[in-house]
Amino acid sequence: MAKRTKKVGIVGKYGTRYGASLRKMVKKMEVTQHSKYTCVFCGKESMKRTCVGIWKCSKCNKCVAGGAYVYSTTAAATVRSTIRRLRELKDDYLTFPEYRELPVNEAMGAVAESKDDATSVTGRPLIQMFISVVVMLLVAVSWAMSTQFSKSAMTYKQEYFDAAYFMVWFSTLFMTSCYPVYLLYAVAIRRGDFEKVHSEASKIFGKHGFTYLGFLWRECLFLFLWMGANYAYSRALGQKITASVASSIMSCNTAIICVLGWFVLKDRVRFSQILSVAFAIGGVVVISLDKEFAGDALGIGLAIFSTVMAACYKVLFKRVNGDASLGQVSLFMTGLGLMNTTLNLIPTAALYFTGVETIVWEYVPWGPLIGSALLGLVFNFLINFGIALLHPLIISIGMLLGLPLSAAYDILFRDMTATPKFLTGASLILLSFLLIILPFEEFVKSCRRHTETDTAETEEPVRTVAA
């Protein structure tokens, strides 16, 4: 007997496992026939039904299928975070009011233009592909070169400049520009209303918007994790390990995020994730045995500590802030930069005046410092905007490309030799990274489903003939 499933709001075919939680989540987001509909792309109440299951915005000419992006005005503020939550559910189909059995990648990701713009859409896949390739290359270059600049700053005349905390504080100052750039994009380019945009972004500090208490405890908590991860990473670069080794170890944070997600976020344990964790641990162990690329045990330990702190930052951010929108993340990063400018100035000055960190201002390597800060800012911009506007997989592939780029820089410009241990360890870490970012289990599910469908279609004519 076929398993019965419940229809939950606009979403169906989830059965009893997700029924209760989804009913609460989508109760306030159901399509109501008596109200105007808000387009989540332009924010205008201009969505109209053009044919069965197809809705079109008269302002921005975006079309969507089956009400996937069409909600009442009161629910438009939470639509993006809920859609991200629905994407995380690992079922194969969603059911909408007018579309039955619509695949996830078509319902959630494919936003088609209207028929009036058919002539302008013909070249859009090529443009999208070109933009994705450019973003991937920029992510790879910014990540690899920011690490190389940090390495140069930390190893340049250490008797005159040995100040990892000051370097992290200086780089974090640039994060204050995140929210102004987002406002320029949302208000000036997308023609959004400033009050609505800012009100939606302020919810990162609480349901009621900006409050001093919500701002302080969130920013202080994550500033501590941010400084811990970046300080340990910068201090590791000052030891006798190469930038490519530090980058390879840092890429293992995806595996650590999976482990923390099992306990903190109650994520489902997957076989591919277990393999990824095993490969990541094996890769770090093999690289640590290489005396040429990783000749310092303290540097390896600091890089591992930095990786753990970075993973804690990401998991706790997900736990505390949930599925934050692009504007909310940008406002949060600007707040982080402001807290760093004021509050974090105290330990920076204390380390300098007590002599713990050495800074001779005439010999400060401002070139590598500014280069590392700017490239780090570009990297964070690309992560935030790339995930929101393109796809998280594009950012992950860009980070993956940054590892061989950093290794090539070490070999060409730092006179390093690619040893078998380094290549083996880096390959294990790359394999661990691939197991996390690529949906192998979903691919196997899809193959099984298509196989069962083909088998059923083949058996049906046989039954008819037999009858």
UniProtKB/TrEMBL annotation:
<keyword id="KW-0862">Zinc</keyword>
<dbReference type="GO" id="GO:0022625">
    <property type="term" value="C:cytosolic large ribosomal subunit"/>
</dbReference>
<feature type="transmembrane region" description="Helical">
    <location>
        <begin position="271"/>
        <end position="289"/>
    </location>
</feature>
<feature type="transmembrane region" description="Helical">
    <location>
        <begin position="295"/>
        <end position="317"/>
    </location>
</feature>
<feature type="transmembrane region" description="Helical">
    <location>
        <begin position="365"/>
        <end position="383"/>
    </location>
</feature>
<feature type="transmembrane region" description="Helical">
    <location>
        <begin position="126"/>
        <end position="146"/>
    </location>
</feature>
<dbReference type="InterPro" id="IPR037185">
    <property type="entry name" value="EmrE-like"/>
</dbReference>
<dbReference type="InterPro" id="IPR011331">
    <property type="entry name" value="Ribosomal_eL37/eL43"/>
</dbReference>
<keyword id="KW-1133">Transmembrane helix</keyword>
<keyword id="KW-0812">Transmembrane</keyword>
<dbReference type="InterPro" id="IPR002674">
    <property type="entry name" value="Ribosomal_eL43"/>
</dbReference>
<dbReference type="Pfam" id="PF01780">
    <property type="entry name" value="Ribosomal_L37ae"/>
</dbReference>
<keyword id="KW-0472">Membrane</keyword>
<keyword id="KW-0687">Ribonucleoprotein</keyword>
<protein>
    <recommendedName>
        <fullName>EamA domain-containing protein</fullName>
    </recommendedName>
</protein>
<feature type="transmembrane region" description="Helical">
    <location>
        <begin position="421"/>
        <end position="440"/>
    </location>
</feature>
<feature type="transmembrane region" description="Helical">
    <location>
        <begin position="209"/>
        <end position="229"/>
    </location>
</feature>
<comment type="similarity">
    <text>Belongs to the eukaryotic ribosomal protein eL43 family.</text>
</comment>
<dbReference type="Pfam" id="PF00892">
    <property type="entry name" value="EamA"/>
</dbReference>
<keyword id="KW-0689">Ribosomal protein</keyword>
<feature type="transmembrane region" description="Helical">
    <location>
        <begin position="166"/>
        <end position="188"/>
    </location>
</feature>
<dbReference type="GO" id="GO:0003735">
    <property type="term" value="F:structural constituent of ribosome"/>
</dbReference>
<dbReference type="GO" id="GO:0006412">
    <property type="term" value="P:translation"/>
</dbReference>
<dbReference type="InterPro" id="IPR011332">
    <property type="entry name" value="Ribosomal_zn-bd"/>
</dbReference>
<feature type="transmembrane region" description="Helical">
    <location>
        <begin position="329"/>
        <end position="353"/>
    </location>
</feature>
<dbReference type="InterPro" id="IPR000620">
    <property type="entry name" value="EamA_dom"/>
</dbReference>
<feature type="transmembrane region" description="Helical">
    <location>
        <begin position="241"/>
        <end position="264"/>
    </location>
</feature>
<dbReference type="GO" id="GO:0016020">
    <property type="term" value="C:membrane"/>
</dbReference>
<feature type="domain" description="EamA">
    <location>
        <begin position="132"/>
        <end position="288"/>
    </location>
</feature>
<dbReference type="InterPro" id="IPR026505">
    <property type="entry name" value="Solute_c_fam_35_mem_F3/F4"/>
</dbReference>
<feature type="transmembrane region" description="Helical">
    <location>
        <begin position="390"/>
        <end position="409"/>
    </location>
</feature>
